[in-house]
Amino acid sequence: MKLVIGDKFNSSWSMRPWILLKHFGIPFEETLIRLGQPDTKSKILEVSPSGKVPCLVTDAGDAVWESLAIAETIAEMHPWHAMWPREAAARARARSVSAEMHAGFADLRQNMPMEITTHAPGTGATPDVLANIARIEAIWAECLGKSGGPFLFGEFCIADAMFAPVVMRFNTYAPKLSATSLEYGKRITALPAVAAWIDGAREGAR
């Protein structure tokens, strides 16, 4: 199984399935394609019909693109891992907030892009971005309140992987956050899989 990704310091979409595979100890081959290069598009199109990363290439040679679709595929291939909550109502909420993250928060994405190696407190805090952040904090507070933590649905799952790039953004831009959000962000950042991604981002930015 091969996962094709972009640069680790700014490819937020690539981060999600990568840390999911790493966290659950699932072997895979990493293929990194540098973004913004003259041959970037052609290299990606060799493996990904969408022309974008990430793209998972299964052992059978099938391509799966879009981070949430990749996560669902990985979960189906490894049902013994609780990548979604086992309980039905919690699983439905986890899928809902994951899809909301996948499709929404355009202002946050535009004004606070994931740049792991950057430290720019206060940058990008427009009213629309702050509204996005408020919604994200509400999601985190509700999920953590119902599950009791330490992650959104108790144990680390796909929903946490979907929000991990947001934590990276918050680390970079340091918006004002609740104590609950700050503590959750620290737990995500400290995960070995996330720490390994951050190390790769720093190495790649040199």
Automatic annotation (TrEMBL):
GO terms for molecular function: transferase activity. Gene3D superfamilies: 1.20.1050.10, Glutaredoxin. Pfam families: GST_C_2 (PF13410), GST_N_2 (PF13409). Residues 1-82 form the GST N-terminal domain. SUPFAM superfamilies: GST C-terminal domain-like, Thioredoxin-like. CDD domains: GST_C_3, GST_N_1. GO terms for cellular component: cytoplasm. This is Glutathione S-transferase domain-containing protein.
